[in-house]
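TICKET: design request
STATUS: open
ATTACHED STRUCTURE:
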């Protein structure tokens, strides 16, 4: 089924049902199957491991909503993910993938999938002292994946007996190998004794700082075959790790890294943005024929399509609901809850400014001075024919970079590393840094 799904995605060259990122993921999968058959390959593909994981998950019960069968029947998109995650193995038999992203619009069963995957890891990977963790910024959010897994165990006596599982208020334990499955939120993640083996980070877009991820990753240094499972929809722009993860994944699927990121699996279901390289236009948010790109379960769940249609009616007529609709229903990022300019239109304005060519053109400039915490900003504007061209620079004191990045309010450090701003020494902005800029 996974191979057929990938082949169908690759054949959809016009992007009628599959987004660009899924078509790229499908090609990567097919290419990796070919790599795995070559002598000396860094990994092999094991149908037995892939089928075992799928079989385990499809013995688990549904615990939310009404379904045609009491047990889970994975959608093809879920099978495509699970087969890759557990089917590719290193020469020593361990998983090839130690990091995995499953990004999809809401109500496409990502929490159920994550719960089942983490439960499979606790039961079937047999790591001594395994610490399976469902992590999020708040305890209620962290509990979503955990509670689904807990109810699955409680409803399946055969599962409890086969693996010696016991359920508690905030944990699932397997005494035979000293394994546990717990929810953890940002504040609790600093406690001693953390040594996570398998981590599900739910709604990673909502993390305002990378602190939780950093703490968990540093605590897992001794694990030989960890799993970092990221499940999320899109979100509003914030200083957290999601923007970097998104960019990394898009470059990964585009083949930018070659084989350097063989450890990272990514499926990203979303409607398509403009592609300047091919001339393809961005998908219309309200073209319901495109919704399946972000909502793979539409083809098997008519209630999902009906719900999206209702929300689309309001989003078309209520600007305050447009950004939320784009984020949650078509998995398209938004700058803020009430965007002044649509993000694709804003991004379309990007380009290189040739300052030397503009030297003799009329120019208007503005300089906004700040002292200790905010940016000192310079902005120059030219009108050339019917075009408006603008260029700017920004500076911030080093003390503010450390303070505000740590607090998660503004990602000054990341901006500086990307060449988007300058840093001056000390606790106050050195205005001399702005003198002569643009000259």
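STATUS: resolved
RESOLUTION: sequence designed for all positions
ATTACHED SEQUENCE:
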């Amino acid at each position: 089924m996974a191979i057929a799904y990938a082949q169908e995605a690759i054949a959809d060259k016009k992007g009628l049902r599959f987004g660009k990122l899924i078509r790229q993921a499908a090609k990567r999968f097919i290419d990796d199957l070919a790599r795995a058959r070559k002598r000396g390959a860094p990994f092999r593909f094991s149908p037995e491991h892939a089928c075992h994981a799928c079989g385990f998950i499809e013995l688990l019960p549904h615990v939310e909503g009404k379904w045609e069968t009491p047990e889970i029947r994975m959608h093809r998109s879920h099978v495509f993910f699970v087969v890759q995650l557990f089917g590719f193995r290193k020469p020593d038999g361990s998983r090839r993938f130690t990091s995995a992203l499953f990004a999809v619009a809401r109500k496409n069963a990502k929490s159920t999938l994550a719960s089942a995957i983490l439960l499979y890891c606790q039961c079937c990977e047999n790591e001594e002292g395994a610490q399976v963790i469902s992590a999020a910024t708040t305890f209620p959010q962290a509990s979503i994946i955990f509670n689904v897994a807990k109810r699955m165990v409680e409803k399946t006596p055969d599962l409890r007996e086969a693996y010696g599982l016991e359920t508690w208020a905030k944990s699932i334990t397997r005494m035979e190998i000293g394994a546990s499955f717990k929810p953890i939120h940002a504040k609790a993640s600093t406690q001693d004794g953390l040594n996570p083996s398998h981590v599900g980070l739910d709604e990673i877009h909502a993390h305002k700082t990378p602190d939780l991820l950093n703490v968990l990753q540093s605590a897992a240094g001794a694990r030989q075959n960890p799993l970092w499972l990221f499940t999320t929809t899109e979100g509003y722009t914030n200083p957290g790790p999601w923007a970097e993860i998104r960019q990394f994944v898009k470059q990964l699927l585009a083949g930018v890294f070659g084989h350097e990121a063989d450890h990272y699996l990514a499926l990203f279901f979303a409607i398509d943005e403009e592609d300047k390289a091919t001339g393809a236009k961005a998908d219309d948010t309200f073209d319901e024929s495109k919704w399946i790109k972000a909502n793979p379960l539409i083809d098997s769940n008519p209630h999902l399509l009906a719900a999206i249609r209702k929300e689309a009616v309001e989003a078309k007529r209520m600007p305050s609901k447009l950004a939320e609709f784009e984020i949650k229903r078509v998995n398209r990022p938004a700058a803020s809850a009430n965007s002044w300019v649509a993000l694709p239109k804003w991004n379309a304005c990007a380009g290189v400014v040739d300052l030397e060519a503009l030297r003799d053109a009329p120019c208007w400039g503005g300089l906004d001075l700040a002292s200790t915490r905010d940016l000192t900003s310079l902005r120059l504007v030219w009108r050339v024919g019917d075009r408006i061209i603008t260029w700017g620079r920004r500076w911030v004191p080093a003390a503010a970079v450390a303070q505000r990045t740590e607090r998660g309010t503004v990602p000054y450090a990341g901006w500086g590393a990307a060449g988007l701003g300058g840093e001056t020494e000390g606790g106050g902005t050195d205005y001399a840094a702005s003198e002569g800029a643009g000259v």
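CLOSING REMARK: Residues 20-36 form the longest helix (17 residues). The radius of gyration is 24 Å.
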